[in-house]
Design a protein that fits this description.
Elements lengths: L1 H36 L7 H22 L7 H4 L4 H36 L10 H27 L15
Helix pairs in contact: 1-2, 2-5, 4-5
C-alpha cells in the first residue's frame, strides 16, 4: 500500500514540478520579449518566478529524499565496509530527518507569522502565507519520507541504486 501511495504522490510532485518549470520558462520568455521588443516587461513576472522556484525546490525535496539523492562524498563512503556503510547510512538519514523536521517546523512558524500579519507580495499582492504553508507541507512530507527511510535502513533495506546517468564523476 505504501508503494502505491508513494507512486501516486511521486507522479503528482513530478507533474507539479514540470508545470512550474514550464511556467517559469514561459513567464521569463514573455518578460524578456516584452522588455526588449515592446519596452513593457510582464508585470509581476519576476515575482511569480520567485515563488514558483521556491515551490519547485520544496516539491523536489521529498523526491530527492526518497531517492537518497542528497550530496555525498563518495571518496570517503566508498572505503567503508558493509557494516560500517550501513551504520553510516543510518546516522546520515537520522541527521537528514532531524534537519528536515527542523526546516518544516520553522517553515510552519513562518507561515503562521505571515498569515497573522496578512503579508502580501510587493507587486501582485499574493498572500505569502499560502506559499509558505505549501512549502511547510512539502517539507513535512520530506521529513516523513526520511523517517521511513531511517526505519528501512535500520531494518537492513539497502539504499536505492542510482542509474549511471544520475551519477557525477
Amino acid at each position: 500500500m505504501f508503494r502505491t501511495a508513494w507512486s501516486w504522490v511521486e507522479r503528482v510532485l513530478e507533474a507539479v514540478m514540470a508545470t512550474f518549470l514550464l511556467a517559469m520558462a514561459l513567464i521569463t520568455a514573455i518578460d524578456v520579449v516584452g522588455r526588449y521588443f515592446f519596452g513593457a516587461p510582464l508585470p509581476g513576472g519576476y515575482e511569480i518566478v520567485q515563488y514558483l522556484m521556491a515551490l519547485s525546490v520544496f516539491a523536489a525535496l521529498p523526491l530527492t529524499t526518497r531517492a537518497e539523492g542528497h550530496l555525498t562524498i563518495s571518496m570517503m563512503t566508498d572505503r567503508l565496509s558493509g557494516c560500517a556503510r550501513r551504520i553510516h547510512r543510518v546516522i546520515m538519514l537520522v541527521i537528514i530527518t532531524l534537519m528536515l523536521v527542523f526546516l518544516a517546523w520553522r517553515m510552519g512558524v513562518q507561515a503562521n507569522h505571515l498569515s497573522h500579519g496578512a503579508a502580501l507580495s510587493g507587486s501582485l499582492g499574493i498572500p505569502l502565507a499560502r506559499v509558505a504553508y505549501a512549502m511547510t507541507v512539502l517539507a513535512w512530507l520530506a521529513a516523513a519520507v526520511s523517517a521511513v527511510l531511517v526505519v528501512q535502513a535500520i531494518g537492513g533495506k539497502p539504499a536505492p541504486t542510482l542509474k549511471p546517468e544520475e551519477t557525477l564523476e
